[in-house]
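Fold it.
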Amino acid sequence: MKPSIRKLRKFFRLEAERGYDNKAVMGGLANILSSWEMDAREDQLPEQTIQAVISRLRDYHRLSEESREVALKGIWQRVTRETGTETEDQQAAESGTPSPQESPPQAAVEEPKAPAAEIAEPPPVEKTQEPTPEKPPPPPDLDFDTPVTAIKGVGEKKKKALERMGVHTVNDLLFTYPRRHDDYSKLKPIGSLWYGDDVTIIGSVESVNIRSVRNGKMKIVEALVTDKSGAIRATWFNQPWMEGQLKKAKQIVLSGLVEQYLGKLVMNSPEWEPLSEKQLHTNRIVPVYPLTKDITQKWLRKIIHDTVEKYAPHLPDPLPDQVQNEIDLPSLSTAVQEIHFPDSEHALHQARQRLAFDELFLLQMGVLKQKWQWESRQGTVFDPPDEWLQNQLNHLPFQLTGAQKKALGQIQEDLQSGKPMNRLLQGDVGSGKTVLAALAAMIVIREGAQSALIAPTSILAEQHYQSLSTLLTGYEDSLQANQISLLIGATPENEKEAIRERLAKGEIKLIIGTHALLQDPVIFQDLKLAIIDEQHRFGVEQRGTLRQKGENPHLLVMTATPIPRSLALTIYGDLELTVIDELPPGRQPVETHVLYPSEVERAYSLIRGQVDLGNQAFLIYPLIEESDKIEGKAAVEEFTRLQENVFSNYKLGLLHGQLTAAEKDQVMTRFRNKEIQILISTTVVEVGMDIPNATVMLVQGAHRFGLAQLHQLRGRVGRGEKKSYCILIPGSAEEVENQRLQAMVETNDGFILAEKDLTIRGPGQFLGTRQSGYTELKLASITDLKMIEQARKHASTLFRQDPELSQESHQALANAVKQFWTRQSTGDIS
């Protein structure tokens, strides 16, 4: 027996002999903790055991004598179980030596004990058998895919209720995690209770009665519960059967909130159990599960407890030994047991860490597999002469920035590698991503192949068509005007047919379009580069469809929404990342202000002043038309009011999503040509509209927008060399201090704003339709950068050793990865 356990046994026996008066040690049992903890760590006792002893003995002095006895019994049983002392006790019993396990439960009640110093140590017992394995092999009939109906207590009605929760099998039940835990582990005598305490008490049922209220519609069961220090009344509503149950129980354990009624302390609807060796709903850290109709907390807790006890110890652990040894977290079976029924706060924290790590590790393994599968394919090599590329750069109307040159170099390396490019190009609004896409397209087109650029909206597709037509035609080695084409939903059907025919023949070398490019009749002769703009707007299937229109084409995806590092390692972890972190020279930061709604006239004066200087302005509203359900100003109504009363001497335009494509195009053309001075719009202008002459962005109802959206809107101005302004006006004075709006004032850095947006709102706006695998995260946080990097590191190491997880020792992991990634694709999650 280890010295620390022997010492604990000594003090517990002395305390039992004294009738649990907390005087076995001078100053109380809590005084042994500091020295005992050092001994326990030297003896290498399990951390959860040490923490359990500390947490129980720290509050020992507050307990009644009855509660102290129960507490010491529970501690001793746990210590012996978790340290293997139980085995020593059994061996000692067989050899006739008194068992130390008997001492706390029996010392004060059944038989006289010798003084502590005279307690004999169990003699050494020769072991003739092999040592017991750490985890016994599962019984042959144990199947984790067993339907829940095989569990005692689950009939047809409960089965249907569990299915509504997504629980069909034993495995589903094991991984149905609590949504929270209530800590009822701190026992208190009734006489020490205070209003607002969330505690556990142990007492005797002195009386029980039932009465009717509300003309008999409700029945109330009341029980008077006492211990030596005092009494408290507990009440349950509409549970008449409890009267009989409470009468049968002489001593009970109650856990819940202490409230006050008519000046007396009461407990309303507390959890309760008869006093027994093992409490499931009280006197511990209690799990609280999500519920559905026909499922109660107590019933589900009992079913999960029975399932965990039977199955969890035999759970196969998918993490290879090399990973488990390095992460220093509990085994999967221990983590599942502790996440449901934790022995201490420390054990619960460790269980959460292990299960969260598993989720992120499996996520990374899937992401790396997708990356590896794509890179394992053969890609066409494109390696243009340096002179030709320099000639292309010389014909640009501007010099590339240092960041653009670096990004172009990475794109060139991808195109020369012989593997399909799989790159995410991210850069703030106006950083010059489009010109890099144009150069990549030209490198591919030079060899006679085709390129396609897909954009989320017709307006953005048209803008790309116009800018690329300007950039890539009209000089030696350039494209001919008829080799670039635009295909959007509004393209007349006869023109669509002609474009499709020319694409199939290879006459069109660069096609720009919207979702219309994904439709089945669109066939390429030789698509070798697919470019996707604002990629978070497109789903997995859509990207896959575009890729399938060529033979392993190179893929370049672009976004003006800066991606926080934690998301770059998870959601976009299968892509190579290029960041353009430098704006073109001459750009000035946009000056941003938040105004009270009452100060709107100041914003109008700024707009008038800027327009009088020959500049243009945007006025953005969150709605198209007024709504009874949503408070906020709407573009249509405001357009009329502003034109008649505020800007009557100026030319206004109206743009929103309900206009036809032709109407939108007409408005945009007029605004681009400066025929419209002030554009009233919804967020349809959020992405891609390039008006260098616009210097004011006024956003009404700004509190209704996310940071990423506000940053995109602000990016519509400041695209020239003129000083520009962004004015944010929330719907009420209280919203002026809105966290997102203040962040916009503090910085123009899109990456800082993206991190803040991730913290404030979570990863939803970054996910778009890129959901596969990410909805499976139950405990892990996709913003936990430290754990994500740890999981990525271990997954990368393992992946380099065995990318297909074909080794025998990795079969459990291969199955876990397959189950986690519920929607498997053939290499396209990007």
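DSSP finds 29 helices and 21 strands in the chain.
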